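Researcher: Quick test of sequence recovery. Tokens follow.
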């Protein structure tokens, strides 16, 4: 295999590792929200422990990117792909941190009965996970249209966040234990809103990678 073929194989492996990290991050969000809905502390602890593996993947992908730049001296489009990969792993790592934040909320509320069944928060999580999947697929496919589609889903997440905020304000009263719990739930909704923002960030990197133009998907 010649040097150029080796380089393109390395790029494909880089993208494959990025998708693996994305799958782990998506699973972390799923498990964190599920642990909260079921008040399952064991599942929350597993989510928190998994974060070390995600952090390690980020470091390995960053090192691989730097090695490719140093050894292969890529130009133009290839250099842009590697540069975007380094930015995307940062967004993925921050999404995983929000999964940990949610899992820690489960731990803090351990033993309590939720003031209401969780409906909109899992819905937010589902849309945010779809956004993450779409963003990474757009990166691999260099698909600008798929990346631009993230803006509509981000609007859905923002709408749910506003509805949750209004509902939680309505639940607050003189019972301090209720106020404490709903405040935690509002923070969880905020974490998920941030997850969606990181997914739109990835979409914006994809658009820049393909077109060289910057576009704000989170208006």
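Model:
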């Amino acid at each position: 295999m010649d040097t150029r073929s080796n380089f393109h194989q390395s790029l494909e492996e880089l993208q494959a590792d990025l998708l693996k990290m994305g799958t782990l991050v998506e699973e972390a969000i799923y498990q964190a929200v599920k642990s909260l809905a079921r008040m399952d502390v064991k599942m929350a602890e597993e989510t928190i422990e998994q974060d070390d593996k995600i952090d390690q993947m980020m470091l390995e992908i960053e090192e691989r990117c730097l090695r490719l730049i140093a050894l292969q001296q890529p130009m133009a489009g290839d250099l842009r792909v590697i540069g975007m990969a380094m930015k995307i792993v940062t967004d993925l790592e921050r999404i995983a941190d929000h999964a940990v934040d949610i899992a820690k909320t489960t731990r803090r509320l351990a033993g309590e009965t939720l003031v209401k069944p969780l409906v909109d928060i899992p819905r937010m999580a589902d849309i945010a996970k779809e956004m993450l999947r779409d963003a990474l697929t757009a990166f691999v496919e260099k698909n600008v249209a798929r990346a631009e589609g993230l803006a509509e889903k981000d609007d859905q997440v923002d709408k749910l966040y506003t509805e949750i905020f209004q509902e939680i304000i309505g639940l607050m009263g003189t019972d301090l234990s209720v106020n404490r719990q709903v405040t935690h739930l509002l923070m969880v909704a905020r974490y998920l809103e941030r997850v969606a923002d990181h997914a739109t960030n990835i979409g914006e990197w994809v658009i820049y990678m393909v077109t060289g133009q910057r576009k704000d998907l989170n208006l």
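The CA atoms of residues 63 and 115 lie 46 Å apart.
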